[in-house]
C-alpha cells in the first residue's frame, strides 16, 4: 500500500466516524493512539476499517443505486437471500469489492459462473455469482487487488435472463475452514452504503 492509498483509507475512515456518533469517541481515541508512523495497517484491519476498504463491485454503480435485498425470501420462502443483488446491464464490469486471494473459480447450478475470494486473514469470503464471463487470466490462488476486474455481469445459473445482476455475498468463516464449508453471511449493504 502506498502513502496516497493509506491517506485515502484514513480519510474514508474519518468520514465514517463522523457519520457514526455512537462510536466516534471510542474510535477517535484509538486513532489518536495510533497516530504514529506505520500503524495504518492496524486501522484498516479493524471492523470499522472494512467499510472504508470495500468498494461497490459493479463498475459505475454508486451507493444510491443499491438496494438492500439481504432479507428477501428465496426458495419460495424456505430461506433468506443473505446476499446483495446489484442490477446492471449484461456485460457491465464486475470488480473486486475487496482484496484477497482467489480461492475458487466454480460453475454451480444456482450461481452459474462464480468466484470465491478470501481476505488476507482468511476470515471473510467474498462471493460473486451469475457472471456472464470471467476476466482473462484469472487463476485459483492468485492475489486479487481491490477494484481488479473479475468479469462481467450476467444471468448464468438460476438468475432471470431478463434481469441480469451480480449476486454478491460476504461470508464470515474461520481461517482454517474450507471455502465450501458453512459460514455466516453478513449484509454488505450497510458496508457499501455506509449506513
Ligand atoms: Zn442474489
From TrEMBL:
Comp. bias intervals (Acidic residues): 14-25
Biological processes per GO annotation: proteolysis
**InterPro entries cross-referenced by the UniProt entry:** Cell_wall_metabolism_enzyme, Dup_hybrid_motif, M23ase_b-sheet_dom
Needed co-factor(s): Zn(2+)
Annotated region (Disordered) at: 1-46
Sequence ranges assigned to domain M23ase beta-sheet core in this UniProt record: 80-173
Where is the sequence biased in composition, kind Basic and acidic residues?
1-13
Keywords (alphabetical) are:
Hydrolase, Metal-binding, Metalloprotease, Protease, Zinc
Task: Tell me if Acyltransferase is a UniProt keyword of this record.
Answer: no
Q: Which residues cross the membrane?
A: none
Q: Which GO molecular function entries does the Swiss-Prot or TrEMBL record give?
A: metal ion binding; metalloendopeptidase activity
The answer to whether UniProt assigns keyword Zinc to this entry is yes
- PANTHER family for the chain: CELL DIVISION PROTEIN YTFB, PEPTIDASE-RELATED
Q: What is this protein called?
A: Peptidoglycan DD-metalloendopeptidase family protein
Species, as recorded:
Aurantiacibacter arachoides
Amino acid at each position: 500500500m502506498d502513502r496516497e492509498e493509506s491517506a485515502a483509507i484514513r480519510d474514508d475512515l474519518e468520514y465514517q466516524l463522523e457519520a457514526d456518533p455512537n462510536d466516534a469517541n471510542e474510535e477517535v481515541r484509538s486513532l489518536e493512539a495510533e497516530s504514529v508512523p506505520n500503524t495504518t495497517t492496524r486501522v484498516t484491519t479493524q471492523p470499522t476499517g472494512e467499510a472504508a476498504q470495500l468498494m461497490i463491485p459493479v463498475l459505475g454503480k454508486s451507493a444510491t443505486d443499491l438496494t438492500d435485498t439481504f432479507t428477501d425470501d428465496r426458495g419460495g420462502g424456505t430461506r433468506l437471500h443473505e446476499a446483495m443483488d446489484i442490477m446492471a446491464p449484461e456485460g457491465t464490469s464486475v470488480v473486486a469489492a475487496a482484496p484477497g486471494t482467489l480461492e475458487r473459480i466454480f460453475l454451480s447450478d444456482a450461481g452459474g459462473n462464480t468466484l470465491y475470494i478470501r481476505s488476507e486473514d482468511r476470515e471473510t469470503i467474498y462471493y460473486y455469482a451469475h457472471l456472464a464471463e470471467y476476466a482473462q487470466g484469472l487463476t485459483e490462488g492468485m492475489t486479487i487487488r481491490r477494484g481488479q476486474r473479475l468479469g462481467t455481469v450476467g444471468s448464468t445459473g438460476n438468475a432471470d435472463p431478463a434481469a441480469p445482476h451480480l449476486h454478491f455475498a460476504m461470508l464470515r468463516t474461520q481461517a482454517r475452514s474450507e471455502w465450501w464449508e458453512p459460514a455466516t453471511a453478513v449484509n454488505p449493504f450497510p458496508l457499501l452504503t455506509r449506513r
